[in-house]
Design goal:
Helix content is about 65%, strand content about 0%. With about 170 residues, the protein is mainly α.
Amino acid sequence: MPALSLEHLVDTARSLPGERRPAAPRRLFAVTTELDGATVDVRLLRRQLGRLLDELAKRLDPALRDALAHAAVAWDAFDEVSILDADLRADARFIANAAAALERETDAVRAAIGLEVRLALESALGLVHLVERRLATLVRLRVQSRERSLLPDERPFLDVAAALAEAARGWA
């Protein structure tokens, strides 16, 4: 069911108990460069985003599995998951800057591609940030829900890694 990973992730998140209030959006880092959009290679930028998403998925999968396996034993005392390091942040910042440069282009197609890349990047980083900072809350909600298993079918109940891997294939 890999083609439905993102849909499954959303359905699982919706099944968690509690109030459904969207959080105010926030950027994980500021876009600061004045890169010229005309110098941005759109195909290369799309591949770079795909590689970043793939790397996030590869790092997140084992980290999340380990954290949830530990949480299944002691859900109130497990370590945070840490995925984004300085190198990944630098890659993400470069992609965000290139996307912002494209968004400033007068060519509507290139501007739309910049917007598309930025939204995909921000969505992926938002999911990773959610896992890194709010995993304990998500586990608590899962334990209180109808479906209590943290690793159903040996996969994390919120399989963010599979959703990121699915998205990476679309950007390759």
